[in-house]
Amino acid sequence: MLELSILGFLAEEPLHGYELKERIKALTGHVRPVSDGALYPAITRLVRAGMLDERAEQGASAAPRRTLSLTARGREELLGRLRHPKQAEISDQVRFNTVLAFLRHLPDRHEQAAVLRRRLEFLETPTSFFYDGGAPVRAEEADDLFRQGLLRVARATGQAERAWLAEAIEQLDQPS
Fold first, then answer.
1. Which partner from 7, 69, 155, 166 sits 20 to 30 angstroms from 120, CA to CA?
2. Percent of the chain whose pLDDT exceeds 90
3. How far from 89 is each of 16, 53, 125, CA to CA, in Å?
4. Phi and psi (nearest 5°) for 68?
5. What CA–CA distances, in Å, run from 66 to 16, 22, 23, 137?
6. Which of helix, strand or coil describes residue 58?
7. Strands 64-70 and 131-132
8. Are 97 and 27 in contact (CB under 8 A)?
């Protein structure tokens, strides 16, 4: 997801490494913080793969700053990842949020809708954090106050997300 975030933010405009880190931190925040030890090796991999271009600029201090921009190959990679997210990027809420943050870069509304349909299909599959004899435990059946709370909040969040997904898919399916 770090590479997707890098590609997605650089699709919007060239950025310095620090600015890129701040935007990624704002997107994933406390849930999945990004360290320099993860960010800069990922940038190096993407530069070596021809997906990013970097140029040095004179910084405010004596040290030059690297300005990163997306190459045509990087844009192709971004669009491919958005068209065909991995199942973990559909099922994991934080990962899906990253996909969602950059889905607007897909130029085809039907491709955007297809990604949202995959998420909606996932959310419509009955699930729970807890099971009893293989059956999902509902909030009303949970054996303590805290599990009830966890399940009620998850149900409300899921209902709101499913409603939004249905609305968005309907809007994307309409002729432009």
1. 7
2. 71
3. 27, 26, 16
4. -105, 140
5. 6, 15, 16, 51
6. strand
7. unpaired
8. yes
Q: DSSP letter for 131, please.
A: E
Q: What is the pLDDT of residues 73-110, one digit of tens each?
A: 999 999 999 999 999 999 999 899 999 999 999 999 99
- Number of CB atoms found within 10 A of residue 11's CB: 17
Distance CA 34, CA 131 (A): 33
CA distance 172 to 151: 31
Tokens of 145: 């106050």
Alpha carbon 69 to its chain centroid, in Å, reads: 20
Name the residue among 110, 104, 83 with its Cα closest to residue 171: 110
Tokens of 74: 């990087």
Strand 131-132 and strand 15-16: the pairing is unpaired
The candidate with the shortest Cα–Cα distance to 81, out of 95, 99, 107, 97, is 99
Compute how many other C-beta atoms are within 10 angstroms of the C-beta atom of residue 70.
24
